[in-house]
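Hey, can you fold this?
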Amino acid sequence: MDAEIRIDRVLPATIGRVYDAWTRADLLARWYCPNPALELKVQADVRVGGDYVVEMGPHVVRGTYLEVEPPHRLTFSWKWDGTDDEPTKVEVELSEVADGTRMLLTHTGFADAEDAANHQLGWDPEVLRLVELLSVRQPDPAADRG
């Protein structure tokens, strides 16, 4: 069975800021873990064939970037250390909308519905943390010149 996760969300930021949040290790380290109490370390070589490693306390996920199309699309493999599971695939599609940026996150390739449900439990709080990060008001360079 190939269960999947789909999260369709409008984020309160420009497409460039959302793409940066997905591709800059310093920003990923601020939201890319469902549990804010865990120490989070991120390494990301964001290019086709580049690798990433995310350490969430004792939990480590790693993969390879399969598609990198700034600022609209990012696809990468996903594999937890210490498991025999086959890698799954995450696709992030971004598009500009009136209220910000529409993010469609699709995570596919799970062995079963239970595995997908467990990952959904991780993605939901992560996306909330992403929304919080993007909701922080950014300085307006034009205002500094006034």
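Oh, and this one too while you're at it.
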Amino acid sequence: MGVTIGNNCRIYGNSPNMWGTEPFLIKIGNNVHITNGCKFNTHDGGTLILRKETPDLELTSPITVGNDVYFGLDTLIMQGVTIGDRVIVGARSVITKSIEGDSLIVGTPACKIKTVDQYHEEIKLQSLKIGHLDRDSKEIELKKIFRDR
């Protein structure tokens, strides 16, 4: 479709309309995880109703995603946004402005709530310590953990 996608990327629930009408304007870095329902919108469709007054009206711009980025479920990324390296985006966030690297962002519109390092330190305390396991082994361990609770 024309999207530039780096190495070691995971796209879950890929659908043709997730990339919008100008997929060739989207660049995805390395080690990016895009979960179900995410959409990339490289244009402002509101121009359509104004073209009878200004026929050549067009607002379209690229989206660039850095390396080591995670997009939670149903995230919407708007035109002209650049997302830095090492960014975690919470589910159902709407990204309307560029995001600096090392950021955990959430909300509508999305905003930074902490650095990825701060988030990492917090969640290490809550970790189940099974993230390194393969899928089947992880299922066994999760059943053990949550059966006892």
